[in-house]
Amino acid sequence: MMAQYLEIKAEYPGALLFYRMGDFYELFFDDAVSAAEALDIALTKRGKHLGEDIPMCGVPVHSAENYLLTLIRKGFRVAVCEQMESPEEAKKRGSKSVVKRGVVRLVTPGTLTEESLLEARRHNYLASFAQVRGEGALAWVDISTGAFHVMSLAQVRLGPELARLAPSEVIVASEDDTDLGDIVTESGASVTELGRAAFDSTGGEKRLCELFDVGTLEAFGAFSRPEVAAMGAIVEYLEITQKGKLPLLQVPQREAQARVMQIDAATRRNLEITQAMSGGRAGSLLASVDRTVTAGGGRLLERRLSSPSRVMEVVQDRLESVDFAVEQSRFSEDLRGALRKVPDLDRALSRLGVDRGGPRDLAAIRNGLAQAAEIAGMVESVGLPKILAEAAIDLTGHDELLDLLDQALIAEPPLLARDGGFIAPGYDAELDEVRQLRDEGRGVIAAMQSEYQELTGIQSLKVKHNNVLGYFVEVTSTHADKMLSEPLNETFKHRQTTANQVRFTTVPLSEMETKILNAGGRALEIEKRLYDSLKAAILEVSAEVSQAARALAEMDLITGFADLARGENWCRPQVDESRALEIEGGRHPVVEQALRKAGEPFIANDCALGSESDIWLLTGPNMAGKSTFLRQNALIALLAQAGSFVPASSAHVGLVSQLFSRVGASDDLARGRSTFMVEMVETAAILNQADDHALVILDEIGRGTATYDGLSIAWATLEHLHDVNGCRALFATHYHELTNLSEKLTRVDNATVSVKEHEGEVIFLHEVKRGAADRSYGVQVAKLAGLPSAVVERARVVLDALEKGEREGGTAQKALIDDLPLFSATPPPAPKPVRESDLDKRIAEILPDDLTPREALNLIYELKGLADKPG
Fold it and tell me: Residue 270, annotated ligand binder?
């Protein structure tokens, strides 16, 4: 047995081997040590190898999925090794023969299909990057839904695209000497290397043609050699990991970068589009706008927010559909009620395709198609806009399959086919008969007993059972001659004679005995056969079922956007080919919801770019809301092009080709980058890439270095955005000197966030208006943050001196430094001791919880008397 284990393990050196032993998957040697630590399970020993104990641990087969999930999340890959025959079959080859075993599946982050291993509302992409003669392409697939896409892509764009897709695993060529591995790792995906042969475009075309059973790929479009190579590598990897059981993949869709808004990784992080800075979904734009009610709709929403469209017709069609759903509120709510009952068709279909499904997946297809038919009936008499009308067509045409599944399945099937009991009574006559035998065997035998009593005329005749003879007919000795004589001896065959009884058998009774004893197993066999036939019927029309699933997801997203627009008072944006970004009463969707929970209002603000000015230079103190203002306008543009209404009173958005955000600061110690270096790298990416239809938001450029260095960098950056990039931008800064540039640069306007100062305190109004701030109020903000009063007062003194030195050419600054060295501030004088009064002493003695109402009233008079005493 251990020789077999080592032989199989040698084929999968990079994976943990789950070696099936009866009801357990067992792991040995280093695999056992690693798994025991990762899973927090006991590490034991089993036998010896080369004179040393063999470490061993195991997990139950019935709960293996939970352990697999933990291992995958901790970066492991698992080879699942099953028994390919029963122990009885192995013994036929010899008493010491080892049961045949083989790896049936390699479990990796990008090849998961089980419901318990996946997030229902997120895609799980497996991607592949290929390069042929300097040209590159990225392909990606979600085998849990069948989605398959490819696009031509230069290596320099790989990082941003991986940030958009967030794949779990990326396949690259093992001989590639570029830094692909670093790019993939930075995106958070697992790197998988395949030999160069897997990326051969000729071999890839052959694999793809075999997969889709076509003679040529031209039927799906004109794919470049790098695109075919990338797709071929994915198919090769799926053949390796799935051991020939390839998933149901949809026809590959060719995407073009020019059709979607380009958003780099830093911008996605800064804007928290699908994931908050904290790492979770909560607090992200996705979480705040998600009103979808189906898993498919949730996944579609994430795709739309990650890839806003740049195609005017597409954006307008999506907005038109949402507008219709907003206006038809009753219809929209009824539709959402029906959609709530829709199961995850895509993932049920995928599990059936790779033979990891069960009766519940059959029921999910049935229930989903039933809801599709109901929804189709709801919308058939309604004048729908283009997208909803096309979706409605895809909901029909499934009557034959739906009727089949309706007749075949019970309402609530079990999870596993091996549990049986999922085929409805009356669907299969043979199954009904076997079930009757299994469940009503005693009644069947009683009926046979009555039949034999009538045949023989012996009312005392009994049909009995024991472990030696099985079922038999028993009569008393007085009736023995009758049973042994003609014509009864032709039917009843003598089996045994005892002191007082004689026992017989009949051919029908023996056959019935066999049927009863085998009825349970036979019922399972029949149900498994029927399961396979139902699965085959579904897979035969899998493309049509996938279309229905896509249609339901589209309807869910549209009505979800409509529900959001009605509930949050959002408006339909005007989107066109102009350079406008004119927003009235704009709000940040995430911040507004957070403030609402705290019972505080959100202050809406206007933005006007593209008419008189392309760039707003925004000044004002920290804590006043500059970063929120920058982000909300970027998110409004993103939402508009994703096809959603937006959080504003009105919005006019000229199509944005690229969205760049440089907001916030953090270091990257793992790559040897300081906070300032990260800031400069991200700023450089913007200045080198932004075109004239880009939208750029920049916050505090240059603050990570010396004042004059930072000022000069911010100055030059602003000029470059204006003169070279020619893009729309919101540029927040504390360098008030930059506000003078509005006189030099024709398309730059100043704006500021209003504050009020009252008795030395600063009050944030969070209102953005035209003009420039005169100061930053940093000392006041420091006081709000809780700095010791001595530090705040010292800062005021130093600030006054520095501002005076600025006015006097720097001499006062020098005098200040000479006269008041750093940290020389004297501590505040200790307060003089105050003599405690009689009133203070009495109040200190009072325990309010111990007072009765009368005692409290008397105490008030007593305290008033003490207060009136002189001194």
Answer: no
Asked if residues 77 and 106 have their Cβ atoms less than 8 Å apart, the reply is yes
Q: How far apart are CA 638 and CA 573, in angstroms?
A: 11
The verdict on whether residue 633 carries a ligand-binding annotation is no
C-alpha span between 77 and 99 (Å, rounded) = 25
Q: Are 326 and 569 spatial neighbours (Cβ–Cβ below 8 Å)?
A: no
The per-residue pLDDT for range 218-234, each reduced to its tens digit, is 888 889 999 999 999 99
Q: 86 with 18, same domain?
A: yes
Q: How many domains does the chain have?
A: 6
623 is in an annotated binding site: yes
Beta strands in 50-205, from DSSP E residues, in sequence order: 52-60, 78-83, 101-107, 126-132, 135-142, 147-152, 169-173, 190-194
What is residue 774's predicted lDDT score, i.e. its pLDDT?
A: 64
Q: What is the C-alpha R_g of the chain?
A: 38
Q: How far apart are CA 677 and CA 705, in angstroms?
A: 10
516 is a domain residue: yes
Contact, 158 vs 136, CB < 8 A? Answer: yes
Is 627 assigned to a binding site? yes
For the cut 50, the answer to whether the pLDDT of residue 670 exceeds it is no
Under DSSP, is residue 79 helix (H, G, I), strand (E, B) or coil? strand
- For residue 142, the number of C-alpha atoms closer than 13 Å in the C-beta half-sphere is 23
Q: DSSP string of 492-522? A: PEEEEE-SSEEEEE-HHHHHHHHHHHHHHHH
- Burial class of residue 381, CB neighbours in 10 A (0-12, 13-18, 19+): exposed
Under 8 Å between Cβ of 89 and 227:
no
| 280 marked as part of a ligand binding site | no
Any idea what DSSP says for residue 198?
G
Q: Which domain holds residue 812?
A: 787-830
* Omega of the bond leading into 413 within 30 degrees of 0 (cis): no
DSSP letters spanning 685-728: HHHHH--TT-EEEEESTTTTS-HHHHHHHHHHHHHHIIIII--E
DSSP reduced 3-state for 664: coil
CB-CB contact of 350 with 365 (8 Å): no
At which of 107, 137, 156 does a domain end? 107
Contact, 571 vs 650, CB < 8 A?
yes
Report whether 753 contacts 629 (CB < 8 A).
yes
CA atoms within 13 A on the CB side of 763: 5
Q: Do 83 and 163 belong to one domain?
A: no
The Cα–Cα gap between 792 and 212 comes to 72
Same domain, 469 and 441: yes
The per-residue pLDDT for 514 is 84
67: left (phi over 0), alpha (psi -120 to 50) or beta: alpha
Is residue 786 annotated as involved in ligand binding? no
Q: What digits encode the pLDDT tens for the residues 681-697?
A: 888 889 999 999 999 99
Q: Amino acid letter at 602?
A: F
The residue out of 507, 529, 551 marking a domain boundary is 529
329-356 residue pLDDT tens: 999 999 999 999 999 999 999 999 998 8
pLDDT confidence of 285, banded at 50, 70, 90? very high
- Nearest CA among 657, 692, 693, 690 for reference residue 260: 657
Query: What is the residue whose two structure tokens read 């190579």?
Result: 229
CATH of the domain at 212: 3.30.420.110
